[in-house]
Every structure is written in structure tokens, then in C-alpha cells.
Amino acid sequence: MAAPQPVPPVWKDFGKSANDLLNKDFPIDKTTVEVKTKTPSNVTFRVFGEQHSKKPEHITADLEAKYADKKSGLTFTQTWTTLNQLKTLVELDEKIAKGVKLELNTSLTPAPHGSDKAVAAKSTLLTAIWKQPGLHTRASLDLFKGPIVNADAVLGRDGFLVGLEGSYNVSEGRITKYATAVGFSAPEYAVAVHGLGNLSTFAASYYHKVNPDVEAGAKATWDTKNSHVSLEVASKAYLDQASFVKARINNSGILSLAYTQSLRPGVKASFGLALDTQRLNDPTPAGPAHKVGASFVFEG
Predict the structure, then answer these.
(1) Among 12, 57, 205, 285, which one is least packed by beta carbons within 10 Å?
(2) CA–CA dist 84, 104 (Å, integer)
């Protein structure tokens, strides 16, 4: 008897192991602070702030409140940003049918005072998700843009994965975007090949868990429009149960280093440094040659 097939990842998480290794926990060129707390009544509060080195006088932030009712499968999330953007996300999971999840995602930005419009920007996205062993698919409708129907699906069998994504503009009656991906996932390693941007950009990535303390990965991207090929390689090593270091370098000579330390349960600090190795000896570089950053997370 064949073993049951697991649910494959959603399209946006295709190749996630390699992407996380290459991009997560590198707080470069910015400082971020995140505070998360949870009440006994299943209400979660989150405050996130970010200061970018290019605009040190400007701090962007958002305040989020999330309520989850496990019995009814309903989750309600409300977010207010410093850009005066109001976001609402309503989720209904596993109640209509097994493996079915519905989402309503809205965004509203009031117009500034004195404007002849009441609303500067708005969006409403309806999404339906269906997952079962060997299949993970989504379909969404953007009501105020197009309207545009977005759909994606990932099929999985014995570790092999195939994914498709497409967008269809209803008013224009044409396909506006399409992409595809193939890959293989195992407990110790994963590989993925993407064809993105209407098959104008191709990317190949791999992730390898060398041992319980060391991870390695790489990604190559080819843009057919300008024949440009980029390559980046990264590695992660756990120093102990509470800390790890990461390193990444690309073919432009940018070397990124990061260190993450769990100071205590619920408190984590990360520090990042990016060095332009081609300008290490340049006494008068044009623009910032090297960048630093930090990230702090408080969770209780």
C-alpha cells in the first residue's frame, strides 16, 4: 500500500527553504523592532517599526490586532500603518469543506485633508484555497483592479513538485501573467527551478541540510531580457541552541554576515553587516560602500 502523500507547499512557498536561507535573518541597511503579545482570549497584538538608513528621519510602523476563534474557524486581523492605511483580513478555515479556506483581504487609504476625494486608494481581494494530499491550489479575485483573477496550483508526488501560476484580466479578456516551477523536496535537501515573469526570468535554487548544525544553499537567476545572470550562495551554522550565524555572497562581490542570539525566551536580537568586497581598499567610494543593520523581536 502506497504511503499517503503530504500536502505540497503553496505556490508562494515553492523553494522556501533556499529563499529563507538566502534572505531571512539578514537585517541589512535598516533597524527593525517587533513586539508581539497574546492574551488568554486568543487576541494577539503586534507592533512593528522599521527605520531605513536612507531615510533615518522617517520611521514606518504598523499596529496589528488579531483574533482567532478555533471553534468557528474564524480569524480576524486589523492593521493600521503610519501611512494611514487600514488593512482588514478575514479568514474562514475548514468550515465549508475539508481543506477549504476562504479569505477576504481589504485595504483602505483615506485621502489627505483638503483633497476632493474621500479615499486615496482601496483594494479588495477575495481568495479561496483548497488543499489535500498531493494538491495545493488558490484562486483570488481582485475586485477593484481589472477585475483580475489570479490562480495557482502545486502538485506533489513522492517528493516531486510541479507548480503553475497565472493571472487573467476579465475586462480585457487576456492572460496578463504566467509562471511555472518544478522541484524536488526531501528532508535533507530541496531543489527548485522557476520560470517567472511570463517565462522571461529563470531561477534555479537548492537547499541542503548538511548536518543538524549546518545548512547551505544557492540560487542562480537568468534574465533573458538582458542576458544577465546573478548568483548568490549562503550558509547557516548554529553555534548553540540559542544562537546562529549566517553568511551570504553574490557575484557582485557583496558579502553579508549576520548573527542572531536568543537572549531569553521571547527575546531575540539579530545584527547584520554587508561589505562590498570590491571597494574594501577604495579610500573615497561613491556612496556607502558598506551597510549595517539590526533587528529586535520581543514576544510574550
Answers:
(1) 57
(2) 20
Instruction: Give one DSSP letter per residue of 16-65, joined into a string.
Output: HHHHHHHHTT---SEEEEEEEEE-TTSEEEEEEEEEETTSTT-EEEEEEE
- φ/ψ of 227, rounded to 5, equals 60, 25
Backbone angles phi, psi at 9, to 5 degrees: -70, 160
CB 239 within 8 A of CB 214: no
Cβ(241)–Cβ(221) under 8 Å?
no
The single-letter code of the amino acid at 176 is T
**Chain segment 210-257, per-residue pLDDT in tens:** 999 999 999 999 999 998 999 999 999 999 999 999 999 999 999 999
Separation CA 220–CA 218 (nearest Å) = 7
CB 163 within 8 A of CB 157: no
Give the integer Cα–Cα distance in Å for 276 and 280. Answer: 7
Contact 277, 247 (CB under 8 A): no
Residue 151 has pLDDT above 60, yes or no: yes
What is the rounded CA–CA span in Å between residue 95 and residue 98? 7
Residue 52 CB partners (closer than 8 Å, separation 6+):
29, 30, 58, 60
CA quadruple 30, 267, 232, 253: dihedral sign: positive
Q: Which amino acid is at 249?
A: I
Cα atoms in the Cβ-side hemisphere of radius 13 Å centred on 227: 0
Average of per-residue pLDDT values in the chain: 93
Burial 226-257 (b: 16+ CB within 10 A, else e): eeeeeebbbbbeeeeeeebebebbeeeebebb
Grid cell 468557528 in the structure block, residue: 72
Q: Would you say how long the chain is, in residues?
A: 300
